[in-house]
Every structure is written in structure tokens, then in C-alpha cells.
Amino acid sequence: MRRQRNVKIVATLGPASETYETIRALHETGADVFRLNMSHGSHEEIAEKHAIIRRVEQDLDSPICILADLQGPKLRVGVFANGSEELVPGEKFRMDLDEAEGDVSRVCLPHPVIFQALEAGAHLLVNDGKIKLVVDSCGEDFAECTVEIGGTISNRKGVNVPDVELPLAALSDKDREDLEFVCNLGVDWLALSFVQRAKDVFEARGLADGRAAVLSKIEKPLAVDNFGEILDASDGIMVARGDLGVELPVSAVPPIQKRLVRSCRAAAKPVIVATQMLESMIESPMPTRAEVSDVATAIYEGADAVMLSAESAAGSYPIEAVQTMDNVATEVEADPTYTQIIAASRSAKGSSIADGIVAAAREIAEKTDIKAICCFTQSGTTALLTARERPGVPIIALTSMEGTARRLALSWGCNCVMTPGQERFKGAVVSAARAARAGGFAAETDQIVVTAGVPFNVPGTTNILRVAPCDERLIYSTDPE
Known about the structure:
The protein has helices spanning 20-29, 43-60, 112-117, 173-185, 198-208, 221-225, 227-233, 241-247, 253-266, 289-300, 310-313, 318-333, 336-344, 353-367, 381-389, 402-408, 425-438, 472-478; strands at residues 8-12, 33-37, 65-69, 84-87, 92-96, 106-108, 123-126, 131-139, 142-149, 151-154, 159-160, 189-192, 213-218, 236-240, 271-274, 305-308, 370-376, 395-399, 414-418, 447-453, 462-469. The protein is α/β, with parallel strands linked by helices. The chain has 3 domains: 8-73 and 170-333, Phosphoenolpyruvate-binding domains (TIM Barrel, Alpha-Beta Barrel); 84-160, PK beta-barrel domain-like (M1 Pyruvate Kinase, Domain 3, Beta Barrel); 353-478, Pyruvate kinase, C-terminal domain (Pyruvate Kinase, Chain: A, domain 1), CATH 3.40.1380. The longest helix has 18 residues, at 43-60. Pathway: Carbohydrate degradation; glycolysis; pyruvate from D-glyceraldehyde 3-phosphate: step 5/5.
């Protein structure tokens, strides 16, 4: 299913989007990737959504990527005798391990690891940062605090600890169970929450054991500090701006987003920009101008994908939200300024033969009348390197590996086509020409660029580039066997 844009759209599924009809409509409207939020729903419900997505995929003959988003450790306060209390700035408030119901002076925080890591002067943020406490003194089972920013605190509100490294693994027991379940189910990507360091990613990769690619969510200040090593360890990145905006000054988030997106592109690894992109469309059929500008900014920056969360999962207008994303992307990518920005931000990286081949393919395609770049790929690496170049013509990623086609559906500009395994280069060129014509990318009178690796079906061997006609008769008459 050809899109008239290169950036991809991720749609979260939930109560508003769990039927076959809605999921199919979302895909037909523009959703390239479906996110399954493991924080909500039983394994049975997740399996039902997965099965529906695969039905849509089969019915439309269109590879669809499925992203399972693991919950990660959840840090929450306990309960209050009155259900909630009002905290006043300047007043004292205590958090401890006492399981007794809370009141206006204290509440249980049932996470010993927090107290072990805290120190005087650190901050505790409650309810997405709406309440801010500063630690005056602390021990192994308590923290005496002063309320800096007050407000209503109620049962089981979330707690963020931005100033210290918590000795918590990114994977909870629930996450490990969920990971094994969704890998056996057959998802394409795993989104890993609460990443603080590279070793968090290595643990998830070991458990996934190649069954799914691992995408790290950058949502903590320590993850920003350790981003280089996290990027190296990950297959992809999600810039989770919600939690970043809680634990860091909101003014710091935009430049961090720009740096992370550019780093991911240089590393040829897909990056999703997420959280509150069209938040008002949960309840309104129209977004705000600021939200449209926010989505456009992520696209101008070169992000591989933009994501809808509650807008498509629980909102009243899931189809309209995807349509809005699609419309914004189409408009931005048609803007000559977009082309200039993308070209100016292109940075040469890598010195392998494959790096040279994909760079040459882009140069040839943009300087001559080439309609598409067709790359044969087994592991997906060649397609990712081609996407890093952000060429001005469509990318057709041809593979005999179903899992590769699905994973690449997340990557910028990749139009994924399943094709039989190839043995000879002439057959590969013919398959590429057929795919370009069938997808409406080129006509018989047009030319395409074909990249491949010889010998075929060996990952990482991209070593050949051919400018080829889309007319099979010309291929057969001019190509040696």
C-alpha cells in the first residue's frame, strides 16, 4: 500500500480501535505501525489485537509492523485514608515504607530502592510533576521532604525521581513475562521503558534472542546522558517526551529531541517522536495549530515516525487523528524547505562498500531521471542505510524475509515488498522492475536503481548497483546471465 509520504505513522490500539473494521480503516488511512501498550489489557486481549492486525495485513497484502511497548517499573505512592490530600507549599511531607494509609503529613512509597538512592536535595515529582517535593533528609525507609509545588495528591499517583540513578532494572517481572509472550506471538519491535544505561538494552536483547528488534525509549535524564551507548546497543529509539518533560525542564526537551533524531539518522537506526502530538484530538475532531506545528517540526527534523497514543487508543476520533498526521506529513514533505533541511542535515558516516553503494544510489537517483531505488535486503541493513540518505525518490525494499519487511515498515521511506529469494542478479533486476511498476512507482519507459549483494541471500554483502530499465524485455536483451 503506497503512501504519498516518507515519514511513518504509529497508532496505538485501545478501546477506541480494537475491531477489525477500525484497525483496517486506520491502516488504509495511513497507520504503518500498530503499537500494543502492554500497560493495558490481558494477554488474551493483546493476542486478539495481534490476530486482527495480521488479518488486515493478509487481506490488504501489505506488510504491517507491530510494536509491543513494555510497561517498565511503575513507581507509585500508596493510598490515603481520605482518598486524597492537599499539599501546601512550604509544608513538610514524609514518604516512607509504612503501609498504613496516608494523610496530609505522610504516605507510603512502597519502593525501598528509591530510599536507598535518595540524598538530601534530590527531588520527588508526583502526578507527572504537578507536585514537587525536595528531600531534606532521608534514610533506608523514609524521606522527609518540603513541598515546593503543592496540589492534590491522591491514591497511587506516579512518582518520578529525576536527580538520582535508581538501581532498578528496566525489565520488571511482568515485563519479562510480557516480553516472552509477545515474542512468541510474533511482534516485530519491542519498546523498552525505563532505560537508563546500555546494559538495560542488552538484557532485553538477550531475552528477545532475535525474535524482535529492540527499541529504547528515552524518557529519563540519565538515558539522555548515556544516549551514545544506548543507541549503539539498540535497534531503534523512541523520544518519549512525556516523561522527559516531567523529569527535565520542558524548555530542554526540544533541543534534546533534535539531537537525538539527528544521532539516530546518522547511525541509520529508526527513531520515533512520541507523546502528546495531537492530544486535543482525544476529544476534538480538529487539532490545535500548535499541535500541527509540533508534528511538522518532528518531520522537518527527519524523524522516521511520529506516534499517536491516546488519540488513537481511547479518543473519539482515531481515524481523523491518523488522517491529520498523514495530511501534515504530505504537506511538509512537499515543501521545498523540507528538502533543503533534509539535504543540509545529511552527514556522511561509515566507510563500508554498502555505505558507498547507497550514497551513490541516492546521487544517481537525484541527478538523473530515476523513479525509485530498489534495494534487496535480507537483514534490513541495506534498506536502513538507504533510508539514512533520505533520497528524493521512493525506496522499494525487496526481501524474502517476512520479518524484515514488517520491521522496515517503521523506517523512513521504506516501501516493503515481499519477493522470492534470488539466485542471479538478472532475476533480481526483473523482480525490482515488476515491483516498481506494480506499486505505481514507475512505468515501463522509466528507469530505476537496483542495489543488491552478490552472492545473494547473505546478509551484509551489498556490493552492486545497476541502473536498469523497467521494461523486462530490455533487461533480458541487455543483461548477461
